[in-house]
Amino acid sequence: MEQLFLYLVPFLGIVGLVVMAIKSAWVTRQPTGEQSMVELAGYIAKGAMSFLKAEWKVMIYFVVIAAIILGWSGTLLENSSPIIAVSFVIGAVLSAFAGYLGMKIATKSNVRTTEAAKTSLAKALNVSFTGGTVMGLGVAGLAVLGMGGLFIIFYNMFVLSSGGDVNGHEMETALEVLAGFSLGAESIALFARVGGGIYTKAADVGADLVGKVEAGIPEDDVRNPATIADNVGDNVGDVAGMGADLFGSYVATILASMVLGREIVSNDNFGGIAPVLLPLVIAGLGLVFSIIGTFFVKINSETGNVQAALNRGNWISILLTVAASFFVIDYMLPEGDLVMSRLNSIAFTKMGVFGAVFIGLIVGALMSIITEHYTAMGKGPVNSIIRQSSTGHATNIIGGLAVGMQSTVLPILVLAGGIFSSYMAAGLYGVAIAAAGMMATTAMQLAIDAFGPIADNAGGIAEMSGLPKEVRERTDILDAVGNTTAATGKGFAIASAALTALALFAAYVGISGISTIDIYKADVLSGLFVGAMIPFIFSSLAIAAVGRAAMDMVNEVRRQFKEMPGIMDYTEKPDYEKCVEISTKASIREMVAPGAIALLSPIIVGFLFGHEVLGGMLAGVTVSGVLMGIFQNNAGGAWDNAKKSFEKGVEINGEMYYKGSEPHKASVTGDTVGDPFKDTSGPSMNILIKLTSIVSIVIAPFIPPDSPLGISDNAGVDEIKKVVQLPEALPAEIEVLEIN
């Protein structure tokens, strides 16, 4: 039975990929429409592939150098292996391939969604969501197949072949090598998300400021030179970037649960590996139930509620996963108390583990609901920004910032409650398995998220092709829902990152061999503050990069309008490829610095100051990064939908305002500010959080106990006195304190 469950996991990954191929073939068979539509879609597809090729050229150098270093380091320690380099390369390749799959299907689905919108809203939803489903199943299928397949190989190679202990160093080696897969996936995700975010927002800002505000033409007008680059950006940022992002999140979550599962001594029918194997099985089942959930996403009329249809499919996949998890956990885990051997934890039972999975799924659902409230059209927060747009650009900005900051309260309370309750249910393993439960339906979450950029592209093609008004109205309905689902998807991602980071944090503590992280120590407290600072400088670099790239784009669009006056009367064709080239070069150039911060910070701090200071830094990065991610994602989403509300018409103080009005122009400014928040910096926070933890896990065995600049782990009162230069005579109340 052990072997059956082991091989069931990669088999379920293959099932997901087979269904993906079937749905991809269905999308490809749909009609593409008239020649002008096909031509525009061709420009978008060509630009998207050009970006991916340019990005891959840079990432290949990084992957090769990192693999060589990892392979060399794997020869230095008993509990590692040079094979970690192979694991790293496989993770990087699959992550990049996941982004490629999404990009390919999105650039096929967009024009077919436009053509379907000529018929009905229901047909347009079917095509766009099926395109998103291909993306979701591709990412989840590759992740389940990759993790499941590699675990089988490493388990046989390092544990079974040597007759090793499943709770001993042999399994630790297997999981340390498997961590290379997660490191490769997250590294590529970081570059894909940051590079794609810089690309899409540089193009978007150029199209908005010069096209809509200065030239007075629609954003997706065929005369706008930046419009093709803008539509390309929707794919490279929200499709390829998001695909690599959630691939990395999915893998990191499973890894964290497996690492902590090794700490549990389990007298089960699977040779003691049930706690390690369980996260993989739950991920595989979640993939299957996500496939089932996709069949319930449909509407029957023009007045059908698109958001309700998406929610229905999502909840069905969640409920089925909960039900299946109960029976799987009851079967796999033994009766009686379980406890983690080396880490501080509580005794728990298998029903406690099920409770933690259930909590994780509920936390994910609640995060989506809360994010929808703060970013959806017609809701109070977005309406408050609309009202403040009537008094100018500044008040619109103030309103959006206030909404973003306020939107952190409920998610943090939900996360805190989820962390505490899952810990009480099953200790640190419960926190990790809660994150695994939340990520189990990643295929459905990503399908819902990816359909948005497809609908956005479809609307752009309809506008540029001059199709009838009702076609654009249908694509606008999908696009508006897509903005909300994009925001909820990012909320889901940051929530999973918070739980996963805590699990990875616990795994790091176990691997590093430290028992506590004492913030009474000056160097640890300093590490905490440095960690809290990192998301701010990371965000600053990402947002400034968008600003610089956008300036290049604005200047180019202005140049074309000035030197090619025939553009405005359709007698000259804009140079779309020049704008695509500007965004591509800028994004590749600017993504290096933020990526270097995420990768090098834990290495520098760890080797200079030691395990405990690095732990303090990880805590600071996690807390600060989660807050920054929620704030930026929700503020940007709310600004975006406030702007879109004016396109339908809004009432402010008894007067109606539409596109082109002064309040609308103020909302465009707010949306422009929010663009790098929600599509570049904000979504990158969850990768930053997880990547720093994964790098720390990989380097933990190599960090010496007494690092050059750190305070010794055994430092007592005398050592602390020397460091902070306290007088020899301390008050009696302080002298008796034990500083560990």
TrEMBL record:
<feature type="transmembrane region" description="Helical">
    <location>
        <begin position="239"/>
        <end position="260"/>
    </location>
</feature>
<feature type="site" description="Determinant of potassium dependence">
    <location>
        <position position="486"/>
    </location>
</feature>
<comment type="subunit">
    <text>Homodimer.</text>
</comment>
<keyword id="KW-0812">Transmembrane</keyword>
<protein>
    <recommendedName>
        <fullName>Putative K(+)-stimulated pyrophosphate-energized sodium pump</fullName>
        <ecNumber>7.2.3.1</ecNumber>
    </recommendedName>
</protein>
<keyword id="KW-0813">Transport</keyword>
<feature type="transmembrane region" description="Helical">
    <location>
        <begin position="124"/>
        <end position="155"/>
    </location>
</feature>
<keyword id="KW-0915">Sodium</keyword>
<dbReference type="InterPro" id="IPR004131">
    <property type="entry name" value="PPase-energised_H-pump"/>
</dbReference>
<feature type="transmembrane region" description="Helical">
    <location>
        <begin position="492"/>
        <end position="517"/>
    </location>
</feature>
<keyword id="KW-1133">Transmembrane helix</keyword>
<keyword id="KW-0406">Ion transport</keyword>
<feature type="transmembrane region" description="Helical">
    <location>
        <begin position="315"/>
        <end position="333"/>
    </location>
</feature>
<feature type="transmembrane region" description="Helical">
    <location>
        <begin position="529"/>
        <end position="551"/>
    </location>
</feature>
<feature type="transmembrane region" description="Helical">
    <location>
        <begin position="616"/>
        <end position="635"/>
    </location>
</feature>
<keyword id="KW-0460">Magnesium</keyword>
<comment type="function">
    <text>Sodium pump that utilizes the energy of pyrophosphate hydrolysis as the driving force for Na(+) movement across the membrane.</text>
</comment>
<feature type="transmembrane region" description="Helical">
    <location>
        <begin position="83"/>
        <end position="103"/>
    </location>
</feature>
<keyword id="KW-0472">Membrane</keyword>
<feature type="transmembrane region" description="Helical">
    <location>
        <begin position="58"/>
        <end position="77"/>
    </location>
</feature>
<feature type="transmembrane region" description="Helical">
    <location>
        <begin position="591"/>
        <end position="610"/>
    </location>
</feature>
<comment type="similarity">
    <text>Belongs to the H(+)-translocating pyrophosphatase (TC 3.A.10) family. K(+)-stimulated subfamily.</text>
</comment>
<keyword id="KW-0739">Sodium transport</keyword>
<dbReference type="Pfam" id="PF03030">
    <property type="entry name" value="H_PPase"/>
</dbReference>
<keyword id="KW-0630">Potassium</keyword>
<keyword id="KW-1003">Cell membrane</keyword>
<feature type="transmembrane region" description="Helical">
    <location>
        <begin position="272"/>
        <end position="295"/>
    </location>
</feature>
<keyword id="KW-1278">Translocase</keyword>
<feature type="transmembrane region" description="Helical">
    <location>
        <begin position="6"/>
        <end position="27"/>
    </location>
</feature>
<dbReference type="GO" id="GO:0004427">
    <property type="term" value="F:inorganic diphosphate phosphatase activity"/>
</dbReference>
<keyword id="KW-0378">Hydrolase</keyword>
<feature type="transmembrane region" description="Helical">
    <location>
        <begin position="353"/>
        <end position="371"/>
    </location>
</feature>
